[in-house]
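Colleagues,

For the teaching module next term, I've prepared a clean inverse folding example: a structure given as tokens, and then the sequence designed for it. I'd like students to try predicting residues themselves before seeing the answer, so please don't circulate the second half yet.
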């Protein structure tokens, strides 16, 4: 199973890069997670890789850029990104996303929103048949300023979350996960999300919230590596 999933991720990422990289691209965003590893690998194989800079979305992503011999830039230097590639935890048919499973959502959203074209790479498990929150059952990741966690927890329950969990480092760290921006992550389960735009707006309005893992109206295409080796492409309508 794990080989199958790795092959699916690789097939989706390679095809997404091959089909979407504009000839003139000078600034390319690189997301975080295990699937975008293959997008960075593919970019590193290009003969013209000295002609563009790559903008990371966190520590892991910066390492990917360096390890693949790509030129590293920052979003402060390059606030206009030609195209960005990133993974997702769940994708609905309207190309709304849940992201932040790897706790990198704020910088991922910053780069995605700065990008002219935002392309998702994923394996078949990330597709939702209708709404977000159906196949990804761990809740919506929300980055918060640390000392707001108790208040934001109460606020999220008032907004209707069934469970609100401050994400812990587990065996890797005693206490909460600290993001690349020195913040905390809350995972709030709202069940099936019929209107992610409205839910995002309500959560984002809470004092203490930096951003949510609901990415709406920003994805142009999503590439899914399938179990049979094929790649499915969903496009924004
Ligand atoms: O949002 C993310 C990190 O914050 C990742 O892009 C998302 O979790 C998908 O990761 P993977 O490709 O490993 O499934």
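(Answer key — instructors only)
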């Amino acid at each position: 199973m794990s080989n199958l999933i790795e092959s699916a991720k690789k097939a989706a990422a390679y095809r997404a890069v091959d089909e979407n990289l504009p000839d003139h691209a000078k600034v390319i965003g690189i997301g975080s997670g295990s699937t975008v590893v293959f997008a960075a690998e593919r970019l590193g194989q290009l003969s013209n890789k000295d002609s563009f800079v790559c903008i990371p979305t966190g520590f892991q992503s910066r390492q990917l850029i360096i390890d693949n011999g790509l030129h590293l830039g920052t979003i402060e230097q390059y606030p206009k990104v030609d195209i960005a590639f990133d993974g997702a935890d769940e994708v609905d048919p309207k190309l709304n996303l849940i992201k932040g499973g790897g706790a990198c959502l704020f910088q991922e959203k910053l780069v995605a929103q700065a990008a002219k074209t935002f392309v998702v790479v994923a394996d078949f498990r990330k597709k939702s048949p209708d709404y977000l929150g159906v196949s990804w059952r761990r809740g919506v990741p929300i980055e918060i300023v640390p000392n707001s966690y108790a208040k934001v927890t109460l606020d999220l329950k008032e907004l209707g979350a069934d469970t609100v969990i401050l994400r812990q480092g587990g065996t890797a760290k005693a206490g909460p996960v600290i993001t690349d921006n020195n913040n905390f992550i809350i995972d709030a389960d709202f069940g099936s999300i019929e209107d992610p735009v409205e839910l995002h707006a309500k959560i984002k309005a809470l004092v203490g919230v930096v951003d949510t893992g609901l990415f709406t109206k920003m994805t142009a295409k999503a590439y899914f590596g399938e179990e049979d080796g094929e790649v499915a492409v969903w496009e924004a309508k």
